[in-house]
Amino acid sequence: MNAGELLGLDRAHVWHPYGPMPGVRDSYLVSSAEGVRIRLADGRELIDGMSSWWAAIHGYRHPVLDEAVRDQLGRMSHVMFGGLTHEPAVRLCATLVELTGLDHVFLSDSGSVSVEVAVKMCLQYWRSRGRPAKRRLLTWRGGYHGDTFQPMSVCDPEGGMHRLWAGVLPEQVFVPEPPGGFDAPVDPGYLDVLAGAIERHSDELAAVIVEPVVQGAGGMRFHSPEYLRALRELCDAHQVLLVFDEIATGFGRSGAMFAMDHAGVRPDVMCVGKALTGGYLSMAATLCDAGVAEGISRGELPVLAHGPTFMGNPLGAAVANASIGLLRGTDWAGEVARISSGLRAALEPARSVQGVRDVRVLGAIGVVQLDHEVDITAATSAAVAQGVWLRPFRDLIYTMPPYVTADADVAQIGDAIAAAAKAG
């Protein structure tokens, strides 16, 4: 089929993320990708400023990752994880334990499912402890944790994309979003708000769940690590579990291997995904400490009743091992710091663009926030004209480029964001 035929079928039948059906506009047709560039079917090349929704941290067609998939494919592509195990998954879980300081790993096939599993762990833990009334979650506004039902219930209930489901989702406890600014001084008044909410609801709270340091798809906001330390102390004091959602921030994106490392604290339960496999295959994990696992095992139902069909997929585990090996074998922190410096310089001119409200950078994350909703079609087209792929949303034009993005490409991303801001 030619490009026109493919796009016609796509528009008629393929339901894209957060889009209508039938489609109202054509997607960009991709023919291949290599390094940090996406090749379109019409011959254009675009620098990928999004790392394929924050996952492809090493870029595309990386020889080490390609070889890991080929080698594993020659052994087995998949085998059920119930009653069986295999080296790639065992090695991956052992590595995640080493990196995080947590004790146990439950593998799944998407970030949203990893949050579902985290919530199930927390609820079952308290039921097993004889406290079934502890079944609500507390979080701060401005968050995003996924598109399945329990994760939707702890996304921002008003400003988020899931407000349609008010009255259907479980009703959770929300506090205001944390004060902005990674380096901003801690607000004692906000600490009082956190403390008061957790204390008031402690008898019904199973857990507090937050995105540490970076609130991603809920608004691309950064906050002080001090609030994570406060949450750790408050949860310990009031017998509430603490869950960190590191699906977007894990594996170096914020400048630390995990965003929690900025605070020097560990949660009871943690979710990772996205960059886990370097963007090659869908895989996620929910980790917990020994206390959570032991609590569940002492209950009436001593197992975690969850088992994805593709849990522990050998291809995904093999490439995840290779991706983490690449990170640990290179100066990933130096590369992220280089990109961070480049983004600060590249995005500075956007401050003078009419309609820009804020410009902020943390690690390999650059954000331009407008004072109005982005015209996504116009902004995307403007970025593509500059040779860059971006995916704006709400009032945000942002980038999370692969860690291998060259300085000149980072500068070009900055030019594209400025063009998108002017057009959008």
Q: Strand arrangement, largest sheet?
A: 4-12-11-10-7-5-6
Query: How many individual β-strands?
Result: 16
- The rough form would be described as globular
Q: Which runs of at least 5 residues are low in confidence (pLDDT < 50)?
A: none
Pfam families: Aminotran_3 (PF00202)
Keywords: Aminotransferase, Biotin biosynthesis, Cytoplasm, Pyridoxal phosphate, S-adenosyl-L-methionine, Transferase
Binding site for pyridoxal 5'-phosphate: 111-112, 245, 308-309
Cofactor: pyridoxal 5'-phosphate
Q: Explain this structure to me?
A:
The structure is a single chain. This protein is α/β, with parallel strands linked by helices and 424 residues long. Helices cover 37% and strands 16% of the residues. Strand 8 and strand 9 form a beta hairpin. Helix 5 packs across helix 9, helix 7 runs parallel beside helix 8 and helix 11 runs parallel beside helix 13. The model has no long low-confidence stretch (mean pLDDT 96). Belongs to the class-III pyridoxal-phosphate-dependent aminotransferase family. BioA subfamily.
